[in-house]
Design brief:
The chain is of the alpha+beta class. The chain has 2 domains: about 230 residues, P-loop containing nucleotide triphosphate hydrolases (Rossmann fold); about 150 residues, OB fold (Dihydrolipoamide Acetyltransferase, E2P) (Beta Barrel), CATH 2.40.50.140. The protein is about 25% helix and about 30% strand. It is built from 11 helices and 20 strands. The strands form 4 sheets. A 6-stranded mixed sheet has the order 6-7-8-3-9-10, sandwiched between helices. It has a 5-stranded antiparallel sheet with strand order 13-12-11-14-20. It has a 5-stranded antiparallel sheet with strand order 15-19-16-17-18. Helix 2 packs parallel to helix 4. The longest helix is centred in the middle third of the chain and has 18 residues.
C-alpha cells in the first residue's frame, strides 16, 4: 500500500487537445478516491497516466514517494480493473486469477493459497473451475477484482467497472467493492461518470470539468458545499433547482425576487454571507435542493418569505416520497454546458441525464401531499439552505466553511 501524488500533472495530446490541466492532488495511503465528471472531462486520462498507459506531458506521478513517470506499467506495482473485465475466456476462474502470479514466477503453493483465500472472500469458491462464459456479470466482475487482489498491489485503478451491469447488480456491486476496499485498505482510484457511484463509494470525490479539477472533498461536503455552479448542477439527483434572482435588502435582511416570487433569506444567512451585500440591486443564481421543498399543507412551519405558488406539471409517486416537477412562471437556470449537453442528447434521440435535462423545477415532498398534475400548489422552501452563485464567474458567493474555495 502507498500514497499516490499527482504533482502539477498535465496531459496534452499531439493534436493540441488538453485532457488534464495542472492537476495537483494527494491521495493518502489506503484512501478510496473517486474521479467523476462528464464524458471528456479528463478523468480517464488521469487514470491512464497513473497506470503508465499514457505519457505525462508535464508534472510528476509519485507512488509511495517514488516518481513513476518513466516506469512501464508492469513495474509500477498497480492493478487495473476494466469495465469489460478483460478475462481470458479459455481459462477457468482459478487460472484467470492465478495468471498474473504465475507470470511473476510465484511459487505454486503460494499461488494456490492466494487464489483460494481471495476466492473465498469474494464468494467465488464454488466457481473456481468454471469458464467466464458460465458466470453472471457480477461474478465476472468479482473474478476481475480477484485477479487484481491476489497480486497485492500498492494501488488499485478501476475504470468504470460497473458500467456493463444492470441497475440492481450495480447497487449490489457498489457496496461489495466498497467493502472489499475497506477490508484490504489498498489505495484506490475509481473513475466513473455516475455521480451516485461517486457519492456512495468514495472517501473523497474529485469532480472534473474540461480537464480542470473543480473540487475535491468528502461526498457530503461536496453535496452541502459546492464551490461553483458546475459542481452544484452535477452533484445531486434530482439536480439542484437553479433560477436567476434579483437581490434586495430591507430591515429584515436579504430578499431574492424572481418573477412574481420572493424568498427571504434564513436568519443566519447574512452573517454567513457578508459578500452578499455587494450584490444588492444585482442578479445572482439562486439554488435550492429538491428535498428542501415541502408541500405547505404538510410543513406546518412559518410561511412568510418561504412560500412559492407553483403549478404541478408531473407527479411521480416513489413510495416513501413524491417527486413533483413544477413550473414557477420563470425558466430554470441552466449553464451553457448543460444546455449544450441536453441539445446534443436530443439531437441523437437520447434522453439527457438528470444533471443536464432542461426540465421544470423538482421537489421531493412527503407522501401525504395532495399535489395533482395540472393544478396549483403552495410549497415552502427551507430558506436556511439556499445556495447563491455569481452569474459571471459561477463561483459560490459564500460557503459555510471559510477554508473552501472555488476553482476557476
Amino acid at each position: 500500500m502507498a500514497a499516490l501524488e499527482l504533482a502539477h500533472v498535465s496531459k496534452v495530446y499531439d493534436d493540441g487537445t488538453e485532457a488534464v490541466s495542472d492537476l495537483e492532488l494527494e491521495i493518502v495511503d489506503g484512501e478510496f478516491m473517486v474521479f467523476v465528471g462528464p464524458s471528456g472531462c479528463g478523468k480517464t486520462s488521469v487514470l491512464r497516466m497513473v497506470a503508465g498507459l499514457e505519457e505525462v506531458t508535464t508534472g510528476e506521478v509519485r507512488i509511495g514517494g517514488r516518481v513513476v513517470n518513466h516506469l512501464l506499467p508492469k513495474d509500477r506495482d498497480i492493478a487495473m480493473i476494466f469495465q469489460n473485465y478483460a478475462l481470458y475466456p479459455h481459462m477457468s476462474v482459478y487460472d484467470n486469477m492465478a495468471f498474473g502470479l504465475r507470470q511473476r514466477r510465484i511459487a505454486k503453493e503460494q499461488v494456490r493459497q492466494r487464489v483460494t483465500s481471495t476466492a473465498r472472500a469474494l464468494g467465488l469458491s464454488d466457481n473456481l473451475q468454471k469458464k467466464p462464459r458460465h458466470l453472471s456479470g457480477g461474478q465476472r466482475q468479482r473474478v476481475a477484482m480477484g485477479r487484481a487482489i491476489v497480486r497485492d498491489p500498492q494501488v488499485f485503478l478501476m475504470d468504470e467497472p460497473l458500467s456493463n451491469l444492470d441497475a440492481k447488480l450495480r447497487v449490489e456491486m457498489r457496496a461489495e467493492i466498497a467493502r472489499i476496499q475497506r477490508d484490504l485498505g489498498v489505495t484506490t482510484i475509481y473513475v466513473t461518470h455516475d455521480q451516485t457511484e461517486a457519492m456512495t463509494m468514495g472517501d473523497r470525490v474529485a469532480v472534473m470539468r474540461k480537464a480542470v479539477l473543480q473540487q475535491v472533498d468528502g461526498p457530503q461536503q461536496l453535496y452541502e458545499h459546492p464551490v461553483n455552479l458546475f459542481v452544484a448542477e452535477f452533484i445531486g439527483s434530482p439536480a439542484m433547482n437553479l433560477v436567476e434572482a434579483d437581490v434586495a435588502w430591507d430591515s429584515d435582511g436579504p430578499l431574492f425576487r424572481f418573477g412574481e416570487h420572493v424568498l427571504r433569506a434564513g436568519n443566519g444567512i447574512p452573517a454567513l454571507r457578508p459578500q452578499l451585500e455587494q450584490y444588492v440591486g444585482k442578479r445572482v443564481i439562486l439554488g435550492f435542493r429538491p428535498e428542501d421543498v415541502e408541500d405547505a399543507a404538510l410543513d406546518g412551519g412559518a410561511r412568510t418569505g418561504r412560500e412559492l405558488r407553483v403549478l404541478t406539471d408531473i407527479r411521480e409517486d416513489m413510495g416513501p416520497e413524491v417527486y413533483i416537477h413544477f413550473s414557477l412562471g420563470v425558466p430554470p437556470f441552466r449553464s451553457a454546458e448543460a444546455v449544450e449537453a441536453a441539445e446534443a442528447a436530443e439531437a441523437i434521440g437520447v434522453e439527457a441525464d438528470s444533471q443536464v435535462r432542461r426540465a421544470p423545477f423538482v421537489g421531493r415532498l412527503g407522501r401525504g401531499t395532495a399535489a395533482r398534475e395540472g393544478e396549483g400548489l403552495s410549497v415552502l422552501v427551507d430558506t436556511d439552505r439556499l445556495y447563491l452563485f455569481d452569474p459571471e464567474t459561477g463561483h459560490a458567493i459564500y460557503d459555510r466553511r471559510p477554508e473552501a474555495r472555488a476553482t476557476p
